[in-house]
Write a structure and sequence with these properties.
By secondary structure, this protein is α/β, with parallel strands linked by helices. The protein has a single domain, classed as Alpha-Beta Complex (phage-related protein like fold). About 20% of the residues lie in helices and about 25% in strands. It contains five helices and twelve strands.
Length: about 290
């Protein structure tokens, strides 16, 4: 891979001409791992695992007469096994370019955003690993057994029904994750579909200031178009690491270049698939 230099493939504002400041900063929110999962630990390496104990409720508690023997119930013990995989990226620039003001910080920040984007994509849509493998972890949306609700097109009834179904399965729904198109469809819902211009969720010109049916709404471009996902974060366990940034002037010494490297690890697992739900928003099922 060629080293990015001042006179070949770098935009002019990144070259050693006098630049007042780097004004372009691509802002990205926190990784979805922080809001959709419960982090239970951090491990290094592909082989080590975190084993998370899970007890399945027996539902055997009952009234017992005074003086009678209380029946014993054998606990139903299970576990969820987590492994992590490394996500990494490197980039090289010439020493001349690295010496320009805030260039190193800008490069490092850009690579970190790239890592966070991959984390979000992997958490949601990563394909299932091969037979006998548990990592990279399958994306939440590809989890077998996840509940699928009716399309939400003209009112919030399908969302109400899904929340109720999840609560019946002992879930504690907290987050509604949507893509930008689904967000727009929710904002377009009207109190009277036929004639009104009054937003069902808020005035047409403002963003809702309260959760939707008690769910915090988070927007992610890594969700499929016109879709929503209802999440109980306590139902998804994860293992992550910090996002580590390193640089070296030795790796490409003969090219007088600086190499930047950003690395992190992640893994996750759904404890109960029937405590997650997805639905289409803004389009009918056959669209």
């Amino acid at each position: 891979m060629p080293v990015q230099t001042n006179n070949t493939n770098a935009p002019g504002s990144w070259s050693p001409d006098q630049v007042s400041s780097h004004v372009f900063t691509d802002v990205l929110g926190d990784a979805l791992y922080n809001s959709l999962t419960t982090v239970v630990g951090s491990i290094q390496g592909d082989q080590p695992s975190i084993r998370v104990p899970v007890v399945t409720d027996s539902k055997s508690a009952d009234f017992v007469p005074e003086g009678a023997t209380i029946p014993e119930v054998e606990p139903s013990l299970d576990e969820v096994v987590l492994q992590t995989r490394k996500i990494a990226v490197t980039s090289a620039i010439s020493n001349e370019q690295a010496s320009q003001g805030t260039t190193p910080a800008q490069i490092a920040a850009s690579l970190k955003r790239d890592i966070v984007r991959k984390l979000d994509q992997a958490l949601l849509t990563q394909a299932a690993p091969g037979v006998g493998e548990i990592a990279p972890s399958v994306g939440i949306l590809n989890t077998l057994g996840i509940i699928e609700g009716d399309p939400l097109v003209s009112d919030l009834d399908p969302l109400v029904d899904l929340i109720s179904q999840l609560e019946a399965n002992f879930a504690n729904p907290r987050v509604l994750l949507v893509d930008p198109l689904a967000k727009a469809a929710l904002f377009r819902l009207k109190t009277d579909v036929a004639a009104s211009n009054v937003g069902l969720l808020s005035p047409a010109t403002s963003t809702p200031t309260s959760p939707i049916l008690g769910l915090q709404m988070i927007v992610s471009p890594f969700m499929p178009a016109n879709s929503g996902l209802i999440v109980d974060p306590s139902n998804i366990v994860s293992a992550t690491s910090t996002v580590d940034v390193a640089q070296s002037t030795d790796a490409r010494f003969y090219e007088d270049a600086v190499v930047y490297r950003v690395v992190t690890r992640c893994g996750h697992a759904v404890v109960h698939a029937d405590r997650l739900a997805k639905l289409s928003i803004g389009v009918a099922a056959d669209d």
